[in-house]
């Protein structure tokens, strides 16, 4: 059984890949904290909606004419997100704030550990189901 073909495991693997890439970007920011004119970078946030938008759209179907049409328009809920630029620019043009980068590194590490634990629990659940026979 290849766990990589199961949707939940694919999603967890993608999240772990994103977290690994983010850790690399944040470490580059920290390494260049004193480099003149260096601009701190970050990855686009990993969202559940983006992870599932691989071209497959599930539409609701009214099986009974008495069903409600629904309150969501096409495209789902659209929430406006205000982008906040947390960086301060130093006189030398560098905008990396070490405290913020270290907080992001810590949060990324905790997220990675959470996904790893979830992955382990899912594997153990599948093993238990296989051994138990039902």
TrEMBL record:
Pfam families: Flg_bb_rod. Keywords: Bacterial flagellum, Cell projection, Cilium, Flagellum. Residues 79-91 have a biased composition (Basic and acidic residues). InterPro entries: Flag_bb_rod_N (IPR001444), FlgB (IPR006300). The keyword Ligase does not apply. The keyword Glycoprotein does not apply. Residues 57-95 are annotated as: Disordered. It is found in: Bacterial flagellum basal body. Belongs to the flagella basal body rod proteins family. Structural component of flagellum, the bacterial motility apparatus. Part of the rod structure of flagellar basal body. The basal body constitutes a major portion of the flagellar organelle and consists of a number of rings mounted on a central rod. This is Flagellar basal body rod protein FlgB.
């Amino acid at each position: 059984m290849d766990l990589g073909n199961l949707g939940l495991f694919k999603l967890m693997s993608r999240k772990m890949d994103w977290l690994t890439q983010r850790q690399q970007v944040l470490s580059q920011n920290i390494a260049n904290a004193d480099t003149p004119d260096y601009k701190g970078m970050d990855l686009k946030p990993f969202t559940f909606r983006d992870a599932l938008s691989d071209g497959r759209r599930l539409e609701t179907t009214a099986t009974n004419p008495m069903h409600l049409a629904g309150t969501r328009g096409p495209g789902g809920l659209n929430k406006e997100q205000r982008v906040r630029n947390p960086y301060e620019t130093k006189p030398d043009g560098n905008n990396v704030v070490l405290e913020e980068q270290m907080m992001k590194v810590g949060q990324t590490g905790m997220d990675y550990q959470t996904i790893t634990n979830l992955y382990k629990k899912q594997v153990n659940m599948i093993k238990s189901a296989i051994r138990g026979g039902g």
